[in-house]
Amino acid sequence: MDFLDPEEQLKIIKNNVEEVIPENELLNKLKLSFESKTPLNIKAGFDPTSADLHLGHTLLIKKLKVFQDLGHNICFLIGDFTAKIGDPTGRDKTRPPLNNKIIQENSKTYENQLFKILSKNNVQIFYNSSWFDDFDLVKLINLSSMENVARLLERDDFKKRYQSGDSITLTEFIYPLLQAYDSVVLDSDIELGGTDQRFNILLGRQIQKAFEKNQQVALFLPILEGLDGKLKMSKSYQNYIGINEEPKEIFGKIMSISDELMERYIEILYTDSMDEFKGYDNPLEKKKFLAIKLIAEYHTEELAFHAKKDFEEKFSKKSFPNDIPLVKIESGNKTFLELIEEFTERSFSRSEIKRLIKDNAIQINDIKEITLQFIPEKNIEYKIKIGKRNFYKVEFL
Fold first, then answer.
1. 239 is a domain residue
2. Do 195 and 104 lie in a common domain?
């Protein structure tokens, strides 16, 4: 395909980008690509620590789509090896390790979700286990010699943990080096990441230089806050919206966020189409429109409007939905707490259940004053609402 003029490409690429390091190198790479008709290799890495790609991930993937539309090669890296260590970036403690089965299952879902945004043109999917599984001790020692501990401890997250006496494992020190080595293997021209990935991606430039490779340009995108409006969106923090989640769940989560966070989501996720939101002065209706756009983007418009209707029936009209399946539970000598755990399939921790009961947030057949000593009668259908968005029909046997 014919490439756009490099200056025009640069203008498009920089939209909704926090920082480019160094920008003059990016322009030079675009010029060389334009003159030689050779696409650049654009890298973005994702560790499959969960089954869901979420809205925070979509910022990177949509930027990959920009590069794809400009004719460049997309190197979508699934860090199935590095996921065993876990990226320490922004962490105040060591991540728990994942087993191979979970990593493999999560990796497959990433492949499927990726093409909700990208087309399959000029996309290569890589797994870093393909080179790290055979990475011997000599190679690891050689790679480790390319960075020093003092510089690693300059990282804000490591510095805080070190100063407070919290554990930092040697594998966490190795993680940024492995991410950097990925760029060597892929001959990455540009690596994308959130602003929290600054250290790791710039280290990639250093390691590429040590291997006498052309250095990648680092391109940093904004961090999307999670549903709490404070921490970054992350599966680990349970504050995320997964693009593969059920439309009704996505709609409910969007409706739960603050008005300020809604504006932030619109600004970051729909930078190029913010005018579509200008006709909504009512924050409630604006949120509904945002939810519809998101669901239509990652599912279908029909499911988006069905989710809206379902939400309005549940919350605007305060009605109990009709499509909740009846679950039958053997009550035996179980406590009410144990019964809730069973029919909710342990969706809530015991401490959460106790808090919800204390806050009168568990409603049974329109009765809110429920205690842990509640004993349900047998062979009666109970309509149970937990929190704002969780409905159950239960019969105790």
1. no
2. yes
Half-sphere exposure of 66 (CA within 13 A, CB side): 20
Rounded to an integer, what distance in angstroms lies between the CA atom of residue 284 and that of residue 197? 34
CB of 123 closer than 8 Å to CB of 68: yes
* β-strand pairing of 362-364 with 381-386: antiparallel
Whole-number pLDDT of residue 317:
58
Residues 126 and 204 in one domain: yes
Whether residues 254 and 356 fall in one domain: no
Is residue 121 within 8 A of residue 68, CB to CB? The reply is yes
Decide if 243 contacts 229 (C-beta within 8 A): no
CATH code of the domain covering residue 345: 3.10.290.10
298, burial (CB in 10 Å: exposed 0-12, middle 13-18, buried 19+): buried
Give the Cα separation of 51 and 235 in Å (integer): 9
Residues 178 and 93 in one domain: yes
Q: Which residues pair with 191 in a beta bridge?
A: 43, 218
Torsion angles phi and psi, residue 210, rounded to 5: -65, -30
Residues of the chain with pLDDT under 70: 1-2, 86-97, 157, 316-319
Domain span including residue 330: 326-396
| Pair (308, 337) in one structural domain | no
Pair 136, 130: CB distance under 8 Å: no
Q: Which residues contact 217 (CB under 8 A, 6 or more apart)?
A: 20, 21, 22, 25, 26, 29, 189, 190, 191
Q: What is the rounded distance in angstroms from the CA atom of residue 259 to the CA atom of residue 261?
A: 5
- DSSP letter assigned to residue 37: T
Give residue 92's pLDDT.
43
pLDDT of 107-121, one tens digit each? 888 888 999 999 998
Q: Do 14 and 148 share a structural domain?
A: yes
CATH number of the domain to which 59 belongs? 3.40.50.620
**Which residues are bridge partners to 383 per DSSP?**
393
In this structure, the answer to whether residues 73 and 151 fall within a common structural domain is yes
Residues 13 and 134 reside in one and the same domain: yes
